[in-house]
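subagent[fold] <- orchestrator: predict structure for attached chain, return tokens only, no commentary.
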Amino acid sequence: MASEPACKFCQIGGHALPSYIVFEDSISLAFLDNRPLFPGHVLLIPKQHVETLADLPAELIRGFFRNVQLLAQAVEQGMRAEGTFVAINNRVSQSVPHLHVHIVPRKKKDGLRGFFWPRNAYKDEEQMKEAREVIRSAAGKAI
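subagent[fold] -> orchestrator:
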């Protein structure tokens, strides 16, 4: 699998940097985040260097997201959480330019307030329709 020598997550995936690994298979590796939102906050990375979800090869998607599902259940059960928060940043707010999924244990009233940014409503229905059409058009071209 292709790795990027300067990439911190590729180094972790190749066992060149120490980390607290919680799961590993042939396509991915999960480890404890060193700046967790809560104890048990896990990052799952593909071993192959890809920067964003769009870059993940089609043949890895099924297995990778099966591992996301497995880890969401394991984090919830192992940390005795009431649920999990599962998230991916693509470029913006991505501290390491290597695809990674955050799996965070959650409990009611834990202080985490959903998304950490303000909501911005559509100014009118026309703006909503315009957004719908440009996304539909782009999705049709991507398929």
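orchestrator: received. Logging for downstream: Residues 58-78 form the longest helix (21 residues). The CA atoms of residues 21 and 31 lie 4 Å apart.
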